[in-house]
Amino acid sequence: MVLKIFFPQCCNRADSGLLVGRWIAGHDSAVVLAVIHYPFIPGQVKQYVQQMQAQSGVELSVLGSWSLPKDGQEGMESFLRDLSTIFPQKCWLQISRQMGKTGFTCNILNRAQNGGAAQQEVTKKKDEEDVKSDGEAGGEEEDKEEEEEKVIFVHYEQRKVMLSQLHPIENGVPDPKTDPPSELRQMFQTVAHSQPLFFLDKYDDGPLKSTHWQSEGREASIIVELLKQASVPLCLLLSCLLSLWTWICNIRIFSLHPLRFLSSKLSTCVQLSYRTQHMRTLSSPKPAAGHTQFMRKANILVSFLVDVALGMLLISWLYRDNHITMLANTLVPAADHVAKELEELLQWLMGAPAGLKMNRALDQVLGRFFLYHIHLWISYIHLMSPFIEGILWYGGLSACLGLTFALSLLSDMVALLTFHIYCFYVYGARLYCMKIYGLSSLWRLFRGKKWNVLRQRVDSCSYDLDKLFIGTLLFTILLFLLPTTALYYLVFTLLRLVVVLFQGVLHLSVDFINSFPLFAVGLRICRSYRLAEGVKFRVLCDEPGTALHLLMELNPLKCSTVVQTYRTPTYSCYPKDSWAALVKKLFVGELIYPWRHKTTKAD
Amino acid sequence: MHCSGSFSHLHTGSLEVCGRKHNICMVSDFFYPNMGGVESHIYQLSQCLIEKGHKVVIVTHAYGRRKGVRYLTNGLKVYYLPLQVMYNQSTATTCFHSLPLLRCVFTRERITVVHAHSSFSAMAHDALFHAKTMGLNTVFTDHSLFGFADVSSVLTNKLLTVSLCDTNHIVCVSYTSKENTVLRAALNPEIVSVIPNAVDPTDFTPDPSQRQEDRITIVVISRLVYRKGIDLLGGIIPELCLKHPDLHFLIGGEGPKRLVLEEVREKYQLHDRVRLLGALEHKDVRGVLVQGHIFLNTSLTEAFCMAIVEGASCGLQVYDRVAGEEVLPLDRRLRRLRAHCGPVAGSIFAFVAVLDFLFLLLLQWLVPDQVMDVAVDATGPHGLWRQETSSKKETHSKSATSS
Amino acid sequence: MEDEAFTDINGKAISLDCQSHSSFCREFTVSSSKVSIGKVMVYTCSVWLLSYAVFFFTENTAVLSSAIVITLVGMMLHIHFVKVDHESLLVIGSLGIQVSSNYASGRETTTFIEMSKIKDIVINEAIYMHQIIYYLCVLLKDPSEPNAVSSVVPLFQSSKPRLNCLVKVYKSCQEILSKC
């Protein structure tokens, strides 16, 4: 079997002492976490390790000894070997290295029993092998090959491994029976959990001294602590406000049917409820439970801040130089213009559009019907026109809640202003749909078939002569009237699709701002080791004869995976049909977005 | 690496060593997981040929997610090529687009005999055509009967004439089928032989005790599709039931025409007398068959009606005869095409044959034969399948296809 | 140790470099041919000639400058995202297998597969474009069923060596896998 020793890079030049770390069960690998320096009192070391074990929940133990003799320290070897009797272990590693000579030996003491008295030494001393040092590794460590037991040294950077999160994330407590986590995952967990071990400062005056990674930015961490303390009352205040807001929302009046229906259709209301939900997540005073939740909170916070900042930019543009009045002054003539264009379009349809010969009577009826609607619409716009500037002014204020609100409001306003187009579309689609249904059932009659409702299939059926006659007659009439209806349907569907497209773009951008994981992407760019997809190894020494010698680096997550993993799930209000389904719906004349569920109820 | 020059040399060398062993490629659109007579015929034939020591590979089109290379019992290698299915599991044919893949299969497996099955399969016709272009021996097995009157039969028959006039040998499954095929394809009857399908008698032992004596039971077992004459069956069921009150039907099989039978059953209130069993497992077929007195088959095109084929028993003599024949050079092939298939169709197909040959030359220039890896034999004289300890192991592939 | 000359499935020369770091750690590097100057010249010249033809009729100088930008950007994208210079496979006994591919621009993508997830390494057949080719792949274990294969990781995807090269890599991989 091959023994794998994960060795931190920061301990390359540590003074002699004891190796503290963890054996990973079932994988034949050891993770070295720190070196406790000579001189020490073994009892204190034991006590310290136990204390750390209790704090971190990792099965820490003394793995072996580490020697890097300085000048004048001779006779260490035998002393360190004797130590193995004090710390009973299944296996005692004895790693030593000499200054200047780039020598590095690893002896393994196996013992048959854990008793400690009857111990077998299978140590073999070998000549040191001089190997060229690898500059990037920051040290010149070599290891020795044993005859029956091979050793791989995997050097890792303690800080990066400690802070990184391996993907895909495993949530919750893994079930020990089904599947133990893989070796690398265990190694990462060990390093991450043994943070208490790293709090011992190099310059502290304590009974023990040790070498391991330690943070250099004490001052910064104090600021972070203070911020954390300050955020608690802020969160409490926020949650108070939120509960008040939810209370208002839950008043009886708002849950009456028409209001609730309306609010579910207005994208501003949807955005409002969505934002409320986000704030509720943010304002919970408890710290985030896991990595996923922490990232979620951070993403929400960052995207909220960015959203508000963008909104402020918009406001500063809107309320400067009277832009609002300008907008209002262009809006009403634009609506008028659209109405006029529509009127012309209808006139064109009522004649002989594109040289097509329509059924004159039906054409006239339909055309007049729609013209009357446009007339109604224009009077409505004119009634509204004095108030539009006010509406815009107050609506613009909503941008201080964020750009998303402004965009949602814009989408709602567009929906209201183009209500006539929507009406036309519905009328045209209903008419067309009825015709298509009639035609399809009459076509079945024509072929001597009928729809069997009980069994949901088409059966053959013999009709009487008069039934067939009437059916065929109706079929012919419907067939010849179809082009007229289809033309109106086509034109208004195209108009409607333009509006839907515009609204869709608005919704997409709102959704993008809401759900894009800005924090995670920033983390990926600035601290790419924090989100690790896995690891990669580099061979440090490649001379034949020496044992293996690897440098473990972190493999950062791909940007696409970052976005995919940390996207905040959003309420998306656009249809989820495929394109083929959409085209089929358009062809059959079923209503598309947005009152979709209502049409299914009606059918 | 064997380049194309040394390829034939190597082949004759291997012939000397192990007698007349061939590398046979079965081509048909119809193979498992599709179920039917042709499919089981191909499978059983291949198994028997493998037992005789030949190397057999099967080429068919991809079925759903099953594409790439698979291995069946005894190392029978099946290529599921990603060709577009057009109608009824038959691939679309343009005469050319399948050449690159088929050529690759023929070359890397060092095929000597191409055996195509079923005249409904466009892929089989394509393979015959390409095999002739590449100068391989071909055999064709016809499984169906056809009319002469309607448009579709006329067209199919013309196609059959063209593709069979090049074929070295033709096998039919019954004498009726032979007559039919000879007439349809205007063939010389001498190159057509009949190998009737056989039913394994041990699997199908009669058991009269299962019958119910107070009634007459008619058993129908077939796929419920148009080609099997299910419309006819739907027509005769009410008439027969009216005439004979003690008549019962037992219908096994599944298909789109099941609706017809269900409708008939409902319309004439025959729920107690017509039983639809749905899809049957192979092992259940006997259990159904022994319950009946009469077996009814309404198929429109079937040449030899059967449930299970053990067809390969005679397969070998055919192949031995085929392998002796010479392969025609291109000019004589063209002359024969024109002479045989009439002036118009003959000229068209002669032109197509020339194009195919040019296409082959282009492919050989793009990807020379030397560059293609020779496949590791699973079956045949150098087959590795039985050597379990061999370090070379290929598992059932889940291949990444891209086209 | 390069005695044999290997080619890829299209007949282009590639080189296989086997490095043995220790008895249970080997690295295989397959380097494909470099970007040929001739090809680059042909593409560049064709784009420029085309743009010049357009310029001749429209007399719009923006066409010419955009052609230059297009060729430059296209070349950069090509060497950054498409052209793989060499692919390597690092097999470390009892630890895992590392697959990496280096693009011509120096970009490197690496995946490490732990030994506990690996079921086997096999040579498989696949239909690729209009050919049927052999490829080397790593079979991954299904965590729920120990004997099932959950997915396949193809190796040397862009250099696509031929069977003789694959067999060589396969044999030395199996040597290591069987030991650990």
Write up what this structure looks like:
The complex is a heterotrimer of chains A (603), B (403) and C (180). In chain A, strand 5 (91-98) and strand 6 form a beta hairpin. In chain A, helix 9 (323-350) packs across helix 11 (388-397). In chain A, the strands form 2 sheets. In chain A, strands 1, 2, 3, 4, 5, 6, 7, 8, 9, 12 and 13 form an 11-stranded mixed β-sheet that branches. Chain A has 18 helices and 13 strands. Chain A has 603 residues and is of the alpha/beta class. Chain B is α/β, with parallel strands linked by helices. Chain B has 3 domains: 23-194, 3-Layer(aba) Sandwich (Rossmann fold), CATH 3.40.50.2000; 201-324, Rossmann fold (3-Layer(aba) Sandwich), CATH 3.40.50.2000; 330-366. In chain B, 38% of the residues lie in helices and 16% in strands. Chain B has 12 helices and 14 strands. In chain B, helix 4 (122-134) packs parallel to helix 5 (151-165), helix 4 (122-134) packs across helix 12 (343-366) and helix 7 (230-243) packs parallel to helix 8. Residues 1-18, 305-327 and 388-403 of chain B have low confidence and may be disordered. With 180 residues, chain C is α+β, with helices and mostly antiparallel strands. Helix content of chain C is 34%, strand content 39%. Chain C contains 3 helices and 9 strands; from the N terminus they run βββααββββββα. Chain C has helices at residues 37-58, 61-82, 163-179; strands at 6-7, 13-22, 25-31, 84-92, 96-103, 108-114, 118-128, 131-141, 149-154. In chain C, the strands form 2 sheets. A 6-stranded antiparallel β-sheet of chain C has the order 1-2-3-4-5-6. A 3-stranded antiparallel β-sheet of chain C has the order 7-8-9, covered by helices on one side. In chain C, a hairpin with a 4-residue loop joins strand 5 and strand 6. In chain C, helix 1 runs antiparallel to helix 2. The mean pLDDT of chain C is 89. Classes of the chains: A alpha/beta (603), B alpha/beta (403), C alpha+beta (180). Chain A: The chain crosses the membrane at residues 300-319, 365-384, 391-418, 467-491, 497-521. Chain A: Residues 115-149 are annotated as: Disordered. Chain A: It comes from Seriola dumerili (Greater amberjack). Chain A: Pfam families: Gpi1 (PF05024).
